[in-house]
Amino acid sequence: MLVHYQIDAQQLIVFEDVIASRDSSTLEHLKELSSKRRAIEESINHTSSITEAIAREISGGSTCRYEQERLRLEQYLPLLENFISHADLIRSNSQMVRWTSQLKIRWSSALNSSFFFNLTGPKFFQIDSLHFELGMSLFLYGAVLRENALERLPAELKQSAFVFRQAAGVFHYLAHEVFPYSQPQISERPPEATSSVCAAISLICLAEAQAVYIRKAEETGNTGFGVLSKLHHGVAELLGEASSALYLATAEKAISQNFLEFVSCCKVLHELQGQKYQAEVLREDGQIGIAIGVLRNALMNVEKNMPGEEAWKVIFRKEMEAAAEILRKFEHENEFIWHEKIHSADDLPLPQGNKIVKVEPYQPRRWERELAFKL
Question: Which contiguous run of DSSP H or E holds residue 106?
Answer without folding.
Answer: strand 106-108
